[in-house]
Write a structure and sequence with these properties.
The complex is a heterodimer of chains A (about 220) and B (about 180). Chain A has about 220 residues and is α+β, with helices and mostly antiparallel strands. Chain A has helices spanning about 15-25, 30-40, 40-45, 130-145, 155-165, 190-205; strands at about 1-10, 50, 55-60, 85-90, 95-100, 105-115, 115-125. Helix content of chain A is about 30%, strand content about 25%. Chain B has one domain (about 15-170): Nuclear Transport Factor 2, Chain: A (Roll), CATH 3.10.450. Chain B is about 25% helix and about 40% strand. The chains are: A alpha+beta (about 220), B alpha+beta (about 180).
């Protein structure tokens, strides 16, 4: 593979909230692009699968890019062994994401700069063997959604900064509710519950009450 | 290669009538300034009205981090029309952007039918709220720095953009933007 894209963002929010955007998909409601290209039965059946040590895989489905005005199907270009227009994600604890949308791969790496500030570095990747035309297509597809002037990334960054705003010191009790339980499908927040359980172990803090020491979650909660 | 350091091509105005070349160059400067005003005012369709049907818009930046000349956005005029039309359906940071544009060079082709121009720009973002609206609102922040590399078609004394390559010095773009720069 070859990296064709790099940019970074420094935003006023906690690093875990950025990882959250890559783990839970209820926030897809804020993305017009994802609503029109994705919200169908196959989308709602996507599975979040948890792995040891806080890692997560978000299952795939077929995205209908041509449902967005001016966009076309991306079936003509994919990654090896990946069926066309699929969308897989891998979230590595504590803050790395591999996001594969058929024709382009995005990788996020977070560097916490403080409890309320994070740097996110975004990279886009294609295949080393790409022809110039294929590479340009991958870059265009990547940028249309994930570029700094694309449709979705801007919305995600507005979202997490808004969350950071509500959690400023002096605000009322700071809580993130990860309560949706929908059979580990795409809007189930099992991925983030799993993430925070791992975070609690490392920090010896109870995610639901960080002033308390860590304790294994009750089975009923999961 | 850092293409930002390339030396501009020599002037192409050797064969054109000097008066015609001067008028064409004035038309080019006028188009660049009007584009800045329309973009600042978020009059996107009026901005596109300055552009030829064949218009191509790019935002690019050289990355020393990955040793790659990156394209952040590539769009035809039709693509831009579509993006602009769909903007109200998206969640956008509405902090206004204003551009300070300085035209550096205008080179009119020998036949007087086309031209190239290089301009420097600085884009400021004027915060609507920010992380703490009580503190941040109303503050102006440096957002982007770069150069416009424009090409034009000259017709009836009017310069129409055929391409704009917006070359950024920035790779830290924070929340980015849904808007043309």
């Amino acid at each position: 593979m070859e990296v064709f894209h790099y940019h970074k963002a420094i935003v006023n929010t906690n690093y875990k909230l950025w990882h959250d955007t890559n783990c839970e998909f209820y926030h897809d409601f804020m993305h017009y692009h994802n609503r029109v290209t994705g919200f169908n039965d196959a989308y709602f059946a996507r599975k979040n699968e948890s792995f040891e040590h806080g890692h997560i895989v978000v299952g795939t489905f077929e995205v209908n890019y041509d449902n967005y005005e001016g966009f076309e199907s991306r079936a003509g270009l994919s990654f090896p062994h990946l069926p066309p227009n699929q969308w897989y994600m891998i979230d590595l604890f504590p803050g790395m994401n591999f996001n594969l949308r058929g024709s382009a791969l995005r990788c996020d790496v977070v560097t916490p700069l403080g409890p309320d500030k994070v740097m996110i570095e975004f990279r886009g990747l294609g295949l080393k063997r790409d022809t110039p035309e294929e590479r340009q297509t991958r870059i265009n597809h990547h940028n249309s959604i994930w570029g700094p002037f694309g449709r979705n990334l801007h919305e995600d960054l507005i979202g997490v900064q808004g969350q950071g705003t509500t959690m400023r010191p002096g605000s009322e009790a700071r809580r993130v509710l990860h309560g949706r339980q929908e059979n580990q499908t795409i809007h189930d927040e099992n991925g983030m519950r799993h993430y925070y359980a791992e975070w609690g172990k490392w920090m010896n803090r109870l995610p639901s009450n960080p002033e308390m020491p860590y304790a294994e979650p009750a089975l009923a909660a999961e | 290669m850092n293409i930002q350091t390339e030396v501009a091509s020599p002037p192409m105005s050797g064969g054109v009538d000097p008066m015609q070349a001067r008028e064409a160059a004035d038309a080019v400067r006028d188009a660049i300034c009007r584009a800045t005003i329309f973009l600042d005012a978020q009059q996107w369709m009026e901005w596109l009205g300055l552009c030829d049907e064949s218009f191509v818009y790019d935002i690019k930046s050289w990355s020393p981090e990955i040793n790659y000349d990156m394209t952040y956005l590539h769009a035809s005029r039709k693509d831009m029309e579509s993006l602009i039309r769909l903007l109200p359906k998206h969640n956008t940071d509405h902090s206004p952007l204003t551009r300070h544009t300085t035209v550096y060079t205008v080179d009119v082709a020998d036949d007087g039918a086309t031209a190239k121009a290089v301009s420097a720009f600085i884009v400021f973002q004027h915060m609507l709220d920010g992380a703490n609206s009580h503190i941040d609102a109303g503050e102006s922040r440096l957002f982007l720095v770069g150069k416009y590399h424009d090409t034009f078609r000259i017709e009836d004394g009017r310069a129409l953009f055929t391409s704009r390559e917006t070359r950024l010095e920035n790779r830290r773009l924070d929340k980015g933007s849904h808007w043309p720069i």
